[in-house]
Amino acid sequence: MHHLAEGIHRFQEEVFPVKADLFARLGAVHRPRTLFIGCSDARVVPELITQQEPGELFVIRTAGNLVPAYAPGADGVTASVEYAVAVLGVSDIVVCGHSACGAMTAIAEGHDLTGMPAIADWLRHADSAPGRTAPGDRDAVGALVRDNVAAQLANLATHASVARALAKGTVRMHGWIFDIPTGTVDELDAGDPRPQVA
User: Fold this and answer.
1) Would residue 3 show up in a list of annotated catalytic residues for this protein?
2) Looking at 98, 125, 146, 159, which residue is catalytic?
3) From 9, 25, 31, 43, the catalytic residue
4) CA 117, 160, 32, 177 torsion: positive or negative?
5) Distance between CA 149 and CA 115 in Å, rounded?
6) Catalytic residue at 96?
7) From the CB of residue 136, how many other CB atoms can be counted at a distance below 10 Å?
8) What is the distance, to the nearest Å, from the Cα of residue 163 to the centroid of all Cα atoms in its chain?
9) 43: annotated active-site residue
10) Does residue 39 carry a catalytic annotation?
11) For 135-194, what is each residue's pLDDT tens digit?
């Protein structure tokens, strides 16, 4: 914890004073333009990858960048999506998968998750993705990462707030793949799960 305390100190002494006006404005206004749904993986930092300032992204991070299809009942991801779209009025939604994803590796390689029932249950939100992986694909994890991003975009469209915004043309959805070792970001074409350069 000492390194976190040191980080807070550096933030308060070096970063905050330079951005004091920004934080003063953010104290009264919260209007991010983009909902960014990414993986919980510590190597994938949305604000760093996109070079956005505080307040510009509304971020949801889940294992495997999974978004459950809409279902009645309390759900933190659903509530966050609804808030971003219906209350904050974001104009873009990004679902960002990444290379070497532990969740997609577990699925692609058929890891035994019987001792981790919560993880096994959560990963079921990717069930529609593996069927799109080409048989014999030499890069099964990479293919699954791409297919999973497409599947999560489809899941998002089942949420009433997103469906309404899509119908009105007030929101656009994007699928991205971040490659950790190269820093590249590929964008999936809406009708074609093969990556395009973002």
Assistant:
1) no
2) 98
3) 43
4) positive
5) 26
6) no
7) 6
8) 18
9) yes
10) yes
11) 555 688 999 999 999 999 999 999 999 999 999 999 999 999 999 999 999 999 754 444
